[in-house]
């Protein structure tokens, strides 16, 4: 253990004692990476943050990379007068100098400390980055530290190095990799789990009836579920979810937020908004769904994403492919969920695998007649 790491991490941060909660994910509000700004867009985004604050939202998550600092500056303007009433979380990039990054963030946020400082991604050398965050916590720059976008193996290692309090990972009713390892581990270790992307980058709002064409600079251009067979699968489910949402008195977005909110171990559901109306829609999801409703959602998703089975020809051809591809094809038996396959590979300690990579490969194999659907 690093000499500067505290072994007694004390009581949990306040936001962990009151969960679950819906928090404000401030990437989209930063204005960068979400398409070109429209007329009045900046004012609407600021109004969204102010409205969230007025509606009782107390957790705000940002990062220096969100709008190249614009997200942090926005939160600094809006939250400055209510600093003691809110929890502010920001991040340090995997290649950034932690000290310089935090000092710049504090300046933009107009605060002397952040409540939660997270390592944005666990890339090569992440251990030393995390230890630097622990030193910054000891220096009073952060009340708690956490990890984001890591594997369960890295979370376990992180707990040995520093007093991490939280883990932040992607989680929505379509994308469930964290259910295999990370979310159960957080429950076991007593870590807060911060769920980002609960609306699948906007897909679960239901506003995209056809694959959208995003402009240059929009990060969604590269997300695979806005394209091809994956979009079609998800859109079929979204069409069926509409009736469930109506029965629950929610919009589709509200239902999607409520699904994540209802999952055991979730501490904060981080939802973005660029208008006051979107804030209201998101906050309607701050409710626990009944077990029957959750089961109905899970059943619809499960039916749409039934695992494929590799054909004899597919298995024969895979013998000469790379190790990762062979690993996947060997486990395509029509029963094993792709999340399980990805988690099994990742548990070996090699380059991590996520379900998205398996789905893309399976779609390609299906086009070649190398997998079948039972």
Kindly describe this structure.
The protein is α/β, with parallel strands linked by helices and 374 residues long. It has 2 domains: 285 residues, NADP-dependent oxidoreductase domain (TIM Barrel, Alpha-Beta Barrel), CATH 3.20.20.100; 64 residues, no CATH class. α2 packs parallel to α10. The longest helix has 20 residues. The N and C termini lie far apart (50 Å). The relative contact order is 0.12. The N terminus is likely disordered.
In short:
With 374 residues, the chain is an alpha/beta fold. 43% of the residues lie in helices and 12% in strands. The chain has 15 helices and 10 strands.
Keywords:
10 strands, globular, about 10% strand, TIM Barrel, single chain, two-stranded antiparallel sheet, 2 domains, alpha/beta, disordered N terminus, about 375 residues
Q: What class do helices, strands and sheet pairing give? A: alpha/beta
CATH superfamily of the largest domain: NADP-dependent oxidoreductase domain
Order of helices and strands: HEHEHEHEHEHEHEHHEHHEHHHHE
Name the overall outline: globular
Low-confidence stretches: 1-10
Number of strands: 10
Strand content: 5-15%
By CATH, the architecture of the largest domain is named Alpha-Beta Barrel
């Amino acid at each position: 253990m690093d000499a500067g790491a505290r072994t007694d991490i004390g009581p949990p941060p306040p936001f962990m004692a009151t969960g679950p909660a819906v928090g404000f994910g401030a990437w989209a509000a930063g204005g960068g990476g979400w398409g070109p700004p429209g007329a009045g867009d900046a004012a609407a985004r600021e109004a969204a943050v102010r409205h969230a604050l007025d509606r009782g939202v107390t957790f705000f998550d940002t990062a220096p990379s969100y709008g190249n600092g614009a997200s942090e500056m926005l939160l600094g303007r809006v939250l400055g007068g209510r600093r003691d009433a809110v929890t502010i979380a920001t991040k340090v990039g995997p290649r950034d100098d932690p000290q310089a990054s935090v000092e710049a963030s504090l300046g933009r946020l107009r605060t002397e400390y952040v409540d939660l400082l997270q390592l944005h991604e666990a890339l090569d050398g992440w251990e030393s980055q995390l230890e630097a965050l622990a030193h910054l916590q000891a220096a009073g720059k952060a009340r708690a530290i956490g990890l984001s976008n890591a594997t369960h193996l890295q979370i376990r290692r992180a707990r040995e190095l520093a007093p991490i309090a939280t883990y932040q990972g992607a989680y929505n009713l379509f994308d469930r990799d964290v259910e295999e390892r990370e979310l159960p581990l957080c429950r076991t270790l007593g870590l807060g789990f911060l769920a980002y992307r609960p609306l699948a980058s906007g897909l679960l709002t239901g506003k995209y009836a056809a694959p959208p064409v995003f402009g240059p600079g929009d990060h969604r251009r590269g997300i695979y579920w806005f394209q091809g067979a994956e979009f079609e699968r998800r859109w079929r489910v979204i069409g069926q979810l509409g009736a469930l949402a109506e029965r629950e008195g929610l919009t589709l977005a509200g239902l999607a937020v409520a699904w994540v909110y209802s999952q055991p171990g979730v501490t904060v559901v981080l939802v973005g908004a660029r208008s006051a109306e979107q804030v209201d829609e998101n906050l309607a999801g701050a409710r626990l769904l009944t077990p029957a409703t959750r089961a109905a959602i899970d059943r619809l998703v499960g039916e749409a994403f039934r695992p494929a089975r590799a054909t004899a020809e597919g298995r024969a051809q895979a013998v000469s492919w790379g190790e990762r591809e062979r690993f996947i094809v060997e486990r395509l038996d029509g029963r094993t969920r792709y999340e399980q396959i990805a988690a099994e590979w990742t548990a070996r300690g090699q380059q991590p695998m996520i379900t998205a990579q398996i789905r893309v490969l399976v779609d390609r194999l299906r086009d070649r007649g190398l997998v079948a659907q039972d």
